[in-house]
Amino acid sequence: MTAQPPFAILSAVPMPIVVTDARERVLAVNPPATELLGKNQVGHHVVTVIRQPPVLHAISECLGQGLQTEARYVQKDHVHETLYRVICTPVEGGGVLVSFQDVTSQETAGQMRRDFVANVSHELRTPLTSIQGFIETLQGPARGDAAAAERFLATMAKEAERMIRLVSDLLSLSQVEGEERIRPTERVELHGILKSVIRSLGPVADAAGVEMAIEGGTEELWLRGDPDQLVQVFTNLAENAVKYGGDGGKVVLSVHDVARDPILGRGAVRVDVRDFGQGFDEMHTHRLTERFYRVDSHRSRAVGGTGLGLAIVKHIVNRHKGRLRIESEIGKGSCFSVLLPAG
What we know:
Layout (H helix, E strand, L loop, with lengths): L16 E5 L4 E4 L1 H7 L8 H4 L3 H13 L3 E8 L4 E10 L4 E8 L1 H36 L6 H33 L8 E3 H11 L1 H7 L2 E6 L5 E3 L2 H19 L4 E12 L4 E10 L21 H6 L6 H11 L3 E7 L3 E9 L2
Helix pairs in contact: 4-5, 5-10, 6-8, 8-10
């Protein structure tokens, strides 16, 4: 602790605080400020302590005008960036109290909201613009052209279905995010869930010429879970496998009993959803669960993808205290593994 009376009370303040005199020399720092800025800063000019022009300018303005000023201070390391809101307040006798408020989470949340709104707007704008264009054509040049009307109406119906899927996925994402901290308590049997997924996706697989199968033991596997959400997880993964890996002709859902998963720290049940299609570069793996992220945007939209399915899967798996593992190799297919605590 470098602060001395009358600044000793600053040690009780959880945010970093620096006090300067009228000549901009450091009079006191509290422990959080020492952690942020380094040791042995008392007595040094603030220029050598903070070293970020926006903050130094705010301190000078505060001293010169006797008014509270604000700035941003950014701390970076090899992995993270932390953003502080810096408030400079004049103190009696000439000097400045500089406080650092960590606003990283607020800024990150705000940026995520802005990105989300921008992405949703973009996803909706494309089909709406398409529908508007067809309506104008049917009202104008194609008025009375039955063949054109039939062709345009089919495309409009497809675009409307795409918007309905997007809205449905947005509602699902909102619901699962709201329930993510609530651990499911119902006991469910996993094989029954996978069989229902295979049945429901039968027509989709048949239309794509893809064979779907369940492999693994036939004994009952029970775990704590939300049956509807687990159906949604494996439906999303299996449907993706059919749509994007169906050129391999087969999609396999395999069940494995894991004695102890090192990351979960306990016994687990693993379900692999594997296709034998084109696969994708591993550079995409860590981003696939981001909202609206697509390996191939054109192909995803062509098959009706909304870019939200894997984000929904991630949140549901998190709610079940499990984890999602993604592996893929170009030319050999992809495997999406869901590991859930057994019991």
